[in-house]
Amino acid sequence: xxxxxxxxxxxxxxxxxxxxxxxxxxxxxxxxxxxxxxxxxxxxxxxxxxxxxxxxxxxxxxxxxxxxxxxxxxxxxxxxxxxxxxxxxxxxxxxxxxxxxxxxxxxxxxxxxxxxxxxxxxxxxxxxxxxxxxxxxxxxxxxxxxxxxxxxxxxxxxxxxxxxxxxxxxxxxxxxxxxxxxxxxxxxxxxxxxxxxxxxxxxxxxxxxxxxxxxxxxxxxxxxxxxxxxxxxxxxxxxxxxxxxxxxxxxxxxxxxx
Length: 258
Fold this sequence. Notes:
Elements: H1 10-22, E1 27-35, H2 37-45, H3 52-66, E2 72-75, E3 81-84, E4 89-98, E5 101-110, H4 117-129, H5 136-145, H6 149-161, H7 163-170, E6 173-175, E7 194-198, E8 206-214, H8 220-243
Parallel strand pairs: 4-6, 6-7
Antiparallel strand pairs: 1-8, 2-3, 4-5, 7-8
Helix pairs in contact: 1-5, 2-8, 3-4, 3-8, 6-7
């Protein structure tokens, strides 16, 4: 059958390079249903509830602040070693369009554990709606993807192999979900050590959460404990912060005579 050749756009080259880089990371999957009834109640009463991407970034950042291994990278150059970060660096997947083509770009959020939840949510919303050129991380990623193949490979090698570039370009954990678009489970890959994904909140206040982790860094038992702690933080510190935000005003009761 005859067809036609088409060029590969910069966003698709970026995804292709990302998948190539992810092949070297031995990711193991752990899935658990979290009971977030308290969080769901707080979010339902909030006048402008934050998105779940911001919620999970803040919550995982708080857990990683307590557990340094959750903000540690495995680096292979010049010899295999671990690189512990003083704070978390989150990479959140943002669905955008570039020149009419659907794509996914990554926004970086540093020190999520120290930022107000509303600020994290505003950063994600800005990355979702602002012109592409106004988002610094988007510009950097697309600029690299527009390089000739040899230079692109060199840039990716440096980003993967050196301590600080690896942290700056791939973060200490990533968050990706399709729950805003439809139901379904997502098992994403990443060159980073941890990838968090989540489903839709059900009527009983439960939500499916998937974490994929670099088995060179950590085993399943500590991850299971971290997920249990994540549930506690979601219903504790994060829910309390949401409750402290402006709440929905109660509808006034109208008298029969009105």
